[in-house]
Batch of 3 targets.
Target 1
Amino acid sequence: MKEPVIVNYYRRMRVQRVFPLTVDLQASEALNGRVQVRPIIPGAFVTPGIREVELGPPGSTLRFSVTPMAWGRLPHARISLFQNGRHAGNVPLPMKGVRQLDTWLFLFLAFLVPAAIFFFTSHLDWSRAGNVKAHDEPLQMSHAADTPAPEDATTPIPDANRQRAEAMGGAFRTPAKAEASQPPQTGEKGGERSPATMEPKRPSGAIERMIVHEVPEFEGLTRPVAVQMQDCYEIFQRTEKQYRISLYVGGAFLALALISCFMNRSTRARKQSGLVQGA
């Protein structure tokens, strides 16, 4: 036997969009005469709120408009039917309000994250090697026109000047040679200074130098943390240059955007049911 109520509706609906809801009524022993149909959908605005029809043998079709206002499952959504002022039964409708915010977010990250990875690993080279290259050639200010330029360190010194400098001893000794001629520093017990007692190595990477200069020293942890952060950046940069992980990350976010768009699309449904008391 054909069920007396057929409902065409949307199982998943975009929030703040209008969707049609159609109720087809067929005359039966449980449903005849004057019938009132009232869609009750918590979290949604239904227009009109209730409709009344004189149900005859041909049946009748009633149309409503549903605008979901809440996001997520719409609990206890149903079609309530009243016959001659008495409650005849309900038709439960599983409904859910969805939105495409996650889709747009994943799509935005699919372009932003690869661009950020490329910018910080290729355009801005914060590695130790890049820092060394940046300091290989120090900037020098050009000399004034009325000031004679100093002799280049590579210019050969005349023999007479060299002999005069050697005769005067270490007066013209260069800093490098002076440091080389100093005796090795000793510790408390007279031996050479161990590496543990030597001064800490200066930061060589941009990230390491930034952390050391900006973050106060805390119980000897700031410098090791800065070194670890610089090492992580070095590994990440080498991985990006070798495998181009930015392309895989962008593809992953793009796939998530497509999945979210598919899962949050509006879906139509059709339900043919009898009257359920207390649903």
Note: The helical segments are 101-123, 128-134, 159-167, 175-181, 206-214, 222-243, 245-263.
Target 2
Amino acid sequence: MGAGVVKQQTRAYLFALSAVLLWSTVASAFKLTLRYLDVLPLLFYASAASAAALLVILAAQRKLRLLRAFTVSDWLSSALLGALNPFLYYIVLFKAYDLLPAQQAQPLNYTWPITLAILSIPLLGQRIRLRSIAAVIVSFAGVLVISTRGDLRGLHVESAPGILLAVGSSVIWALYWILNLRDRRDDVVKLLAGFLFGFIFTAVAALAVGGLPRPPMAGLLGALYVGLFEMGVTFVLWLHALRLSRTTAQVSILIYLSPFLSLVFIRFVVGEKILVSTALGLVLIVVGIVIEKLGEAGRGEPLASGPV
């Protein structure tokens, strides 16, 4: 392997680790910002920040011309994608964080790769495999452990609506991922167009339920952080890492650090005491995801093609 290739792979790792570190902070940012803003105002300011950042990135890359080439069908596709993400996905996810401790909401939302494997059977025509069945069982055992805080005998949950919303967000993201997979337009251009529509949908929804009160500075800063480092800039860093890497698997494996690092931030930034059941449940969820991803690798597919 030449020095140039090694240098390029090192850059890929640096971009990937930067993305993973930033994504690891956002669960804490969600929880802290929701102390100052309701769900819709948070999404309004965050999606505005994300769209603005993506607009600047596309201008720097000289790709804004690609928006002018959109057909009516392209804009309709972007409207549908924007309705799913950021609009519906983040409304559901933020509400889950509002109802649950961050240490529960974060790993439950992380089940989307398993949800994707399930939905791919009817929507993409994929065959169900024993490996996939095992992956689903292991991951949802983790969901059960986290939801009940380890009380598997009593099966008691403190906020069933929060649990359903957190797991439901993974279904919305999986649907978005499948639709996005079929769309061959430039990834960042698609993301910007979707966020423009998501911003419009959020503004209309916020006005319909009473408008947007003036946000406190702490809430506005939190929303801007979420928009930049959950929805916008970090995604571009991740895409850049995938493009630089010799194989997607070499950097994609790093994404599995994110949920565990996130628990560290939740402990020391949010102040939640991390339960043993949370850590155990997260391990089971990740093991299930790895089982499924190894099956994909065995079929010649990449271990992961994006953030999970």
Note: The chain is about 75% helix and 0% strand.
Target 3
Amino acid sequence: MNWKTAHRSFYYEGAPEPEDLDLKWDETALLVIDIQNTYVERPDRDTLSPEEQERHDKWTPFYDRMTDMVVPRTEELLNAFRKHGIERVFARIACLKGDGKDRSLSQKKPGWNYLLLPKDEHASQFVPELQAQGDEIVVCKTTDSALTGTNLRLILHNMSVKNVVVAGIFTDQCVSSTVRSLADESYNVIVVEDCCAAGHEDLHYRELEIINMIYCHVVSSAELKEIMGL
């Protein structure tokens, strides 16, 4: 099974295979979303209470996927884009006010999605392997969609980008919101499956099924490299 037949939802069962992707280098950009220190660093399990240890263990598959797959494969893809001079853009969750007053409501609500990541703090920075270099563009957002709360739309338009290759987290939240926004703006969106992760594997794959073929095309990093000749 390849990208043309994988990750099919109920809506697209039996649908014709999509046409081959035509991702011209000068019309394509890689967008890396929210792979920040806060999502890869965790406390020592032995320092936690039994209740905290239980939650810690539930998240272990996510952290393993980030360490073993998402970060290294995104780094490989990023370096391939750099080698060939293809545009790279980064979007990260980062508020401008120290108290987070400028955040959107979704980031202020209590619970897991409560996010207070001031722009200059360590937690809000991209992981070391995926730091922007040179004139690579970084936008800060206080929304799930990287388009809604930034000037990314204008940036991509001004650079004549038509195809946006997406990597990042979380598949079912900021990645999905960004993909949908890009699709609504008539960008051709490609999501790199093994460069993304959700809190749970089921959420990751279910969201890929939901967005695939209507808002984007889902491919593996190996397939993308072959398609683009990287």
Note: The chain has one domain: 25-228.
